[in-house]
Amino acid sequence: xxxxxxxxxxxxxxxxxxxxxxxxxxxxxxxxxxxxxxxxxxxxxxxxxxxxxxxxxxxxxxxxxxxxxxxxxxxxxxxxxxxxxxxxxxxxxxxxxxxxxxxxxxxxxxxxxxxxxxxxxxxxxxxxxxxxxxxxxxxxxxxxxxxxxxxxxxxxxxxxxxxxxxxxxxxxxxxxxxxxxxxxxxxxxxxxxxxxxxxxxxxxxxxxxxxxxxxxxxxxxxx
Length: 223
What we know:
This protein is 79% helix and 0% strand. It is mainly α.
């Protein structure tokens, strides 16, 4: 009885979480389209900032979900993907306003929002009614073929665009000497993050291809 109660609470919580974040990403995409039509790509970030910060930051809960066992997603896949997006969202776009009007912001926002609208609606329906339509299942495990490359390229591009501004700033840096006898340079940390994209991007792409193969194979068997 207790197990059934906790299972119901878990499903209710995950349904609410997924639909709440879905609404956030819907706002991001809607505001981005409106800004692009009315003012051009330079206005996209300012139009989407608030729902973007909410939706992307809410994804931190997905790491916690994996750690405590609410979902079965492996941390090895969840952590780098969410970590890189949080870094671009807060560590680049929010921290260095000079990057916000770049054309790559538009491709980033569209890649992220379309991906997440599909993903959160997929999991929202799964937790709400226990199943998803076949077309949404196909989109969930197929659209990454082109949305992941456009998204990851936009992330890398914006980090590169931000480098001169980071280098010319002391933001987030810890200079020696200090009481802790510890130094930190945000510019070199950003370069290290860029370097991680080199092995990380192919790993994630290969992982998603494997997930697609498994998911579509299960669908064929059930049919």
